[in-house]
């Protein structure tokens, strides 16, 4: 409590992506379009899965949850970033900064766990198909999602606790466009070496361990595909390659940033944009453009909607 009482900083100032006003406007337009497409794309996937009976299987149940997480994840940072691009002085209150930090880690960790679960789901479907209905039934899927959110909440609470327990009594300039643990704790009026190591043992270890588990599962799947038919092999490869593209785009930046919190590079902002802005947009594109089943379901849903409109007229 004494440490908390020492907090005198009431707001933080972001340096943002650039100090060039022309670039700010260009970035505002580009990221506004990306954010709008992210919302529309992910909402479209959720609606398609919910209203298409044949997609009520574990793979698309998890995909629907991924779309929901992507909407939340991008909404934590992008609106504030867009606001900052229009303002000369980009500020955020201390409480809002901590809230942004909490929800950023909540949804990012939830996505890490969900991508790992999705890899396990593909492993079970391809490598042990006879046992798949028992291994990935409705009850198991719901339990996995519950465990996912529980684990993400615990992780986020730990990160937030580590951050607010430090005293902030002077510097308040964050060299970024959003609040995250590494740039915020650098402003603390105390030695943060131990906190940095705890961050690595938490965020870094989670990202790296889940990534290695994902790579291992996909390697096992690739080996098992030699026993599949040509058509089955092609379909499995298409699905797994789409999943792995998402994994690489999301896990790469996370591992790059959270396994070295005590050091910073000029490229950090670009890397952050990848997993907070770009990846939530790329996910629906990858899962729809490369998935014939989803595209077919969207087409049928659109035709059903058109038919219902005509019937009313």
From TrEMBL:
<keyword id="KW-0472">Membrane</keyword>
<dbReference type="InterPro" id="IPR050427">
    <property type="entry name" value="Olfactory_Receptors"/>
</dbReference>
<feature type="transmembrane region" description="Helical">
    <location>
        <begin position="237"/>
        <end position="258"/>
    </location>
</feature>
<protein>
    <recommendedName>
        <fullName>Olfactory receptor</fullName>
    </recommendedName>
</protein>
<keyword id="KW-0552">Olfaction</keyword>
<dbReference type="InterPro" id="IPR000276">
    <property type="entry name" value="GPCR_Rhodpsn"/>
</dbReference>
<keyword id="KW-1003">Cell membrane</keyword>
<dbReference type="Pfam" id="PF13853">
    <property type="entry name" value="7tm_4"/>
</dbReference>
<feature type="transmembrane region" description="Helical">
    <location>
        <begin position="140"/>
        <end position="158"/>
    </location>
</feature>
<keyword id="KW-0297">G-protein coupled receptor</keyword>
<feature type="transmembrane region" description="Helical">
    <location>
        <begin position="25"/>
        <end position="52"/>
    </location>
</feature>
<feature type="transmembrane region" description="Helical">
    <location>
        <begin position="270"/>
        <end position="289"/>
    </location>
</feature>
<keyword id="KW-0807">Transducer</keyword>
<feature type="transmembrane region" description="Helical">
    <location>
        <begin position="206"/>
        <end position="225"/>
    </location>
</feature>
<dbReference type="InterPro" id="IPR017452">
    <property type="entry name" value="GPCR_Rhodpsn_7TM"/>
</dbReference>
<keyword id="KW-0675">Receptor</keyword>
<comment type="similarity">
    <text>Belongs to the G-protein coupled receptor 1 family.</text>
</comment>
<dbReference type="InterPro" id="IPR000725">
    <property type="entry name" value="Olfact_rcpt"/>
</dbReference>
<keyword id="KW-0716">Sensory transduction</keyword>
<feature type="domain" description="G-protein coupled receptors family 1 profile">
    <location>
        <begin position="41"/>
        <end position="287"/>
    </location>
</feature>
<keyword id="KW-1133">Transmembrane helix</keyword>
<keyword id="KW-0812">Transmembrane</keyword>
<feature type="transmembrane region" description="Helical">
    <location>
        <begin position="98"/>
        <end position="120"/>
    </location>
</feature>
């Amino acid at each position: 409590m004494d440490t908390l009482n020492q907090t005198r900083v009431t707001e933080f100032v972001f340096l943002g992506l650039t100090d060039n006003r022309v670039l700010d406007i260009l970035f505002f337009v580009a990221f506004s379009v990306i954010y709008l497409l992210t919302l529309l794309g992910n909402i479209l996937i959720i609606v398609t899965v919910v209203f298409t009976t044949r997609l009520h299987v574990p793979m698309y149940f998890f995909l629907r949850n991924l779309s929901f997480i992507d909407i939340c994840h991008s909404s934590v940072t992008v609106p504030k970033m867009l606001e900052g691009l229009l303002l000369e002085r980009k500020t955020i209150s201390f409480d809002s900064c901590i809230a942004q930090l909490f929800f950023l880690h909540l949804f990012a960790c939830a996505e890490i766990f969900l991508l790992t679960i999705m890899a396990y789901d593909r492993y079970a479907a391809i490598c042990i198909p006879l046992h798949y209905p028992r291994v990935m039934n409705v009850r198991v899927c719901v339990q996995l999602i519950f465990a996912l959110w529980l684990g993400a909440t615990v992780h986020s609470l730990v990160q937030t606790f580590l951050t607010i327990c430090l005293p902030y009594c002077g510097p308040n300039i964050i060299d970024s466009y959003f609040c995250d643990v590494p740039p915020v704790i650098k402003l603390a009026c105390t030695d943060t070496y131990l906190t940095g190591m705890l961050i690595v043992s938490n965020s870094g270890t989670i990202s790296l361990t889940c990534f290695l588990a994902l790579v291992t599962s996909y390697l096992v799947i690739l080996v098992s595909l030699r026993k599949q038919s040509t058509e089955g092999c092609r379909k499995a490869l298409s699905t797994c390659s789409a999943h792995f593209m998402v994994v690489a785009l999301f896990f790469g930046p996370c591992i790059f940033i959270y396994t070295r919190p005590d050091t910073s590079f000029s490229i950090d902002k670009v890397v952050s944009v990848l997993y907070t802005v770009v990846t939530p947009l790329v996910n629906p594109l990858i899962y729809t453009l490369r998935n014939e089943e989803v595209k077919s379901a969207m087409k049928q849903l659109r035709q059903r909607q058109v038919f219902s409109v005509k019937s009313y007229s």
